[in-house]
Every structure is written in C-alpha cells, then in structure tokens.
Amino acid sequence: MAWGAPNIPSVSLIQGSLLKKTALIFVAFALFLSACGAGDGEFAASVNGTEYTVGDVNALVFDDSETVSKEQFAQFLGFLVQWDIVVSAAEDDFDIVFTDEEVATAGQEIFETNAEPGVTFEDFLEANAVSEEFVTKVAHLQLVEAALGEVLIDDIEAPSAEDIEAQRAIAYDSLTEVCVAHILVETEAESNDVNDRLTAGEEFSDLAMELSTDTGTGAEGGDLGCTSPTRYVPEFMDATLEAEIDVPFGPVESEFGFHTVLVTERTFPTDEELPTDEEIIESTRNGELPQVLSNWIGGHLDSAEVTVNEKYGTWQTNPAGVVPPSDPSDTTPTTAPPGNATTTTLDEDTTTTAPTEDTTTTTTVDE
User: How many CB atoms are located within 10 Å of the residue 327 CB?
Assistant: First the structure.
C-alpha cells in the first residue's frame, strides 16, 4: 500500500516501516469532482498538539481549486500526519535537522531523477497532480530516513565470530566457479548404462545429445556453462564440488532425475576475494537495519497523539494512515492525491537449466 498516488515517496510509511526499495513511478489517475466545498481554515487533524487544516492538505496538491473523494483526501492527510511524526521524532530523539536549503536541494534531485527529459518542474508537478510542497516533504522524509539509518545502525549488535565465519563460508561457495556438463535420465539403471558407455569410450557430448531428458542442454552436449555451484540444487552442487576434473561422476539423484556429471574446470576464490570481518559486519547490520527502522517508526506512530476531524476519517497505526469515512462516495471540499498507484520492482537472478533450483522473476508491489 502506498499513501495513495502519486507514488513519489521512496520512504512510504507502512505499519511504521520505511520502504526498503526506492522506486518512483508515476501513473495515470482520475479526479473525482465534488460540488461541495469548505474553507481552508477548517480543522483537519492534530499531531502531538500541532494542528493541520484543510488548507495544509490543499497545499500538497497541484491545483487546490478542485475537490476530490474523501478516500483520496484521507491518503494525503495520512501522509501529512506521518511526515510530522517521523520528522519531529527524529529531531527529538537524535537532533536530526535539515536546513531549508538541504531539503530544497533534495527536492530538486527528485525532479531531476524522475522527470522526463525536457520537462519543466512545473510540468512535472502538474503531471503528477502534486505541489512543490508535497515534493519538498517527500524529500525531507528521504533525508530523515538516511540520517536515521546512520544513527540506528550503530545500535545493531555485530555478528559473533561464529556467524562471521559462517557468512564467509557462504561467500566462499558463492565465489567458487565450476564449468560443468551433465546427462540427465529418468532412472538409476539408465544412468548406470550411460556411465558404462562412457567407460567404453563414447563421447560425453554425443550421449548427452542422444539420451539427456534435459533437452535444453542436451542439444549443447549437456553443457551447463560456468557458474557458482550454489546456483544448483544441493545434490548437484555437491557433485560439482566432489567430482574429479574431466572424469564423469554419477549417478547423482536430484528432484529432476539421475545425472552423470562432468566437471571440466573448477576455480576457488582467493583469500583476497573473500569478504573481510568488517565487510561481513557491515553487510549484516545493513540487512537488519530495515527492521530496526521499522520498529523505531512504529513505536513513534503508536505513541503519537493524533486527532482527525471525523468528517475526514480516523487515524490508525496498523497499517498507518487515515481511514476515510465509511461512505467513500461522499467527497471532501478539498483536493487530494490522484487515484491509487502501484510500483513494481523486479528481482533478478533467474535460471532455466534443469538442475538449478527453481527460481522465478518476482514482481513486488510497494511494501
């Protein structure tokens, strides 16, 4: 869930957590017009004693002359509440403060990073139906997120010596490279026949093209190329590390069937290529940081004193945001964010060869 489109924030506050990945993708939207109206000075919400008006919400959209649904208004109002809580808490807890100039520079970077070539800043704002104030607050949150990370990471306990060695062992396997071919058949008896024919002098590549049920590699003489053994299922990985170079090895049973494995080359990482203790500690802490940030933000969202004008919704912390009134067709006298947007990010690392572990390209929506 995002705050609602536009999906400008890379620090989308959800359940008190910061978005792990930064992705700014703007999508088309539709405004829901309303005939009713109200003054900018009307109370919208208060956060720990600080009051915000309808006008403060209006200031976040590009054109405050239009009126939109209460659902959309609640999304912008929820963003404003969360911005206040996080920015204020960061200052109170860690004296994290940014100058107007620093925030403005970060806002300009958002524009330069996401705008199409030749688009002016005004056109950028209009295309995304947001104001400069909204972009500025998003930029402010990004700066605060980065600063919080620098502070909170020091509180994360370093891994033990045993954990460091375990991580180095994983890195060792990942940096090892094997060049391997295989012949895949359905039964152990068939695999034994393959080995007998190889012992009798037949060529590995010829038998792979004739017999292998892995038709993708079979046509290439069984060649799987050169890669880390960790890319394969455990049984096949172990075989690539155990087999003598240029000596057929098998049968090796896996979920795919029975393999005869031929390793033609195997290289191992040097000590200089392996991560140092400091690098492993840094990597481990960085891996734990998102949860630490989530816990910190979640605690402040839970403890904040938030009051929302019931005309515009109610505040909740799980997930964090303003819940609009029960009748979303009833509209507020103000502008609000465009329609719901989603971002998709693709995780890489996919394979197609038979003995590799099943991997899929994953599409994730804003977390």
Answer: 10
- Cα–Cα distances (Å) from 220 to 82, 115, 198, 235, 343, in that order, read 57, 46, 17, 22, 39
CATH class of domain segment(s) 177-267 = alpha beta
Query: pLDDT tens digits, residue range 148-207?
Result: 999 999 889 899 999 999 999 999 989 999 999 999 999 999 999 999 999 999 999 999
The tokens for 317 are 């912390």
As a 3-state breakdown, the chain gives helix, strand, coil percent values, each rounded to 5, of: 45, 20, 40
The pair of three-digit structure tokens given for residue 365, joined into one six-digit string: 């929506």
What does the DSSP 8-state code read for residue 160?
P
CB hemisphere CA count around 345 (13 angstroms): 11
CB 304 within 8 A of CB 296: no
Which residue carries 């290439």 as its tokens? Answer: 220
Instruction: List CB contacts of 195: < 8 A, sequence separation 6 or more.
Output: 248, 250, 251, 260
Phi, psi at 26, each rounded to 5°: -100, 140
pTM of the model: 0.63
Distance CA 60, CA 52 (A): 12
CA gap 229, 174 in Å, rounded: 7
Stated as kind and residue range, the H or E segment containing 184 is strand 177-185
Is there a contact between 38 and 331 (Cβ–Cβ < 8 Å)? no
Instruction: Parse the chain into domains and list their residue ranges.
Output: 43-157+287-341, 177-267
- Sign, Cα dihedral of 229, 360, 348, 213: positive
Task: Give residue 2's Cα distance to chain centre.
Answer: 13
Fold of 43-157+287-341: Triger factor/SurA peptide-binding fold (1.10.4030)
Residues 218-228: tens digit of each pLDDT? 899 999 999 99
